[in-house]
Design a protein that fits this description.
Layout (H helix, E strand, L loop, with lengths): L8 H11 L10 E5 L2 E4 L4 E4 L2 H4 L8 H11 L13 H12 L3 E6 L2 H16 L6 E5 L8 H6 L3 H4 L9 E4 L4 H10 L4 E6 L2 E2 L5 E2 L2 H14 L2 E5 L23 E4 L10 E6 L19 H16 L2 H22 L3 E7 L2 E6 L4 H10 L1 E2 L1 E2 L4 E4 L7 H21 L8
Parallel strand pairs: 3-15, 5-6, 5-7, 7-10, 10-11
Antiparallel strand pairs: 1-2, 2-3, 4-12, 8-9, 11-12, 13-14, 14-17, 16-17
Helix pairs in contact: 3-10, 4-10, 8-9, 11-13, 12-13
């Protein structure tokens, strides 16, 4: 199996079924990507509006990212964090520059970054008798036992009982629920953890008054405010991080996904007032912040600035809203278009999975968020023609589902 010409795809599929644990149910084999497009093993071309679930935000095989990987591979790939590597401090500085003043811990994924935030909050609160963490219903924070316990969607936790103690789930965007939870904890609340814009839960933005009040409550009650920006971060909303739309600075914030544009890297940044909480021996990562991972993330941030990506998100986000609202006016079953920048959700009046499956057949990769929301996640360097192409495929898909009777009331 040296190159694409010698690959036996039937053999690969049989190996997938025989040797890979079925934690996913993939039905499509992708072999090549370029920019906004990917190709399968039958050379069918698709416009990719999943971006690996907001990972490849610069599209597939971006030349600057490819160059960074090749260059660093020839110099130094990995050293233990028992030693300093030249790329990690440079990346930490860049992350502070695009977020807030603090110190950074590096890991490999969003779940690890959130796990690290939870550990920091517990370690910080331990001398004060604080250990409980308030999280939100419909949230998603990862698949480890701690991040699963933090996740506010019960279906993900089923079968993994007993659940890790110390997490309380409350409704999102309801400040009175936060006030009650803090009161009921009798001083045991160490942190409040949330996504400023819920991703997996259905692209649900936090209300500005709600987040401002959260910051105030945390300050008044000596509670840490933790933001999970694994999905909403790295430019998806038109700013580097979603919190920057609200003027609310968290005490600690996680990131991953698009930080490496497909190369695995995660991190969390903590305000400098917390820089003595996690000391040597309290937290670690074998592969966190390797020279290769950090060099890629540096290239990602530099490319955002060089190509004016955030401006493109704002322009193409507005164009996306125009196109999707026009589509919404055409079809009665589209209930709402919500989100910010290019983190948009198309809310339907029924399950969205059937739309996702048929759109794939028609040449568009688009996935769901929650049960009834289509996740509209183009690359952040998408152009208008690509947006129009994707929306036209959605239009075709909706029309076909109307003809089949899946949607009973179609025309508005």
């Amino acid at each position: 199996m040296q190159n694409d010409n010698t690959l036996n795809y039937d053999t690969i599929l049989s190996f997938q079924n025989e040797y890979v644990l079925p934690t996913y149910a993939p039905a499509l084999m992708l072999i090549k990507g370029k920019g906004t497009y990917v190709w399968d093993n039958n050379n069918n071309k698709y416009i990719d509006f999943t971006c690996g679930i907001s990972v490849c935000n610069l599209g597939h095989c971006h030349p600057a990212i490819n160059s960074a990987i090749k260059k660093q591979c020839e110099q130094l790939v990995h050293v233990s964090n028992l030693f300093i590597n030249t790329q990690q401090p440079l990346l930490a500085k860049k992350i502070c520059d695009i977020s807030f003043e603090g110190k950074v811990f590096f890991c490999n994924s969003g779940a690890e970054a959130n796990e690290g935030m939870i550990k920091l909050a517990r370690k910080w609160g331990n001398p004060k008798g604080k250990y409980e963490i308030i999280t939100m219903l419909d949230s998603f924070h990862g698949r480890t036992l701690a991040t699963l316990a933090a996740t506010g969607r019960a279906k993900y936790r089923e079968g993994f009982e007993p659940e890790l103690d110390g997490f309380k789930h409350i409704p999102f965007n309801r400040i009175e629920a936060v006030e009650t939870a803090i009161k009921d904890s009798k001083g045991r609340t160490a942190a409040i953890l949330l996504e400023p814009i819920q991703g997996e839960g259905g692209i649900i933005p936090g209300q500005i008054e709600y987040l401002l009040k959260l910051r105030q409550l945390c300050d008044e009650n000596e509670i840490l405010l933790l933001f999970d920006e694994v999905q909403s971060g790295m430019g998806r909303t038109g700013k580097f991080f979603a919190f920057q739309h609200y003027g609310v600075i968290p005490d600690v914030m996680s990131m991953a996904k698009a930080l490496g544009n497909g190369y695995p890297i995660g991190a969390f940044i903590a305000q400098k007032k917390l820089d003595k909480v996690l000391l040597p021996g309290t937290h670690a990562s074998t592969f966190g912040g390797t020279p290769l991972a950090c060099s890629v993330a540096i290239s990602v941030i530099d490319t955002y600035k060089k190509e004016n990506i955030l401006n493109n998100v704002q322009v193409m986000g507005n164009k996306s809203l125009q196109l999707l609202k026009k589509l919404s006016a055409k079809y009665r079953f589209i209930k709402e278009i919500r989100g910010t920048g290019l983190m948009l959700g198309i809310v339907l009046d029924r399950e969205a999975a059937a739309v996702s499956k048929l759109a794939q057949i028609n040449g568009l990769l688009i996935i769901t968020a929650g049960s009834n929301v289509l996740r509209f996640y183009p690359p952040l360097n998408v152009n208008e023609n690509e947006l129009v192409e994707a929306v036209n495929i959605l239009d075709k898909t909706f029309s076909m589902l109307c003809e089949s009777g899946y949607f009973s009331e179609c025309s508005s």
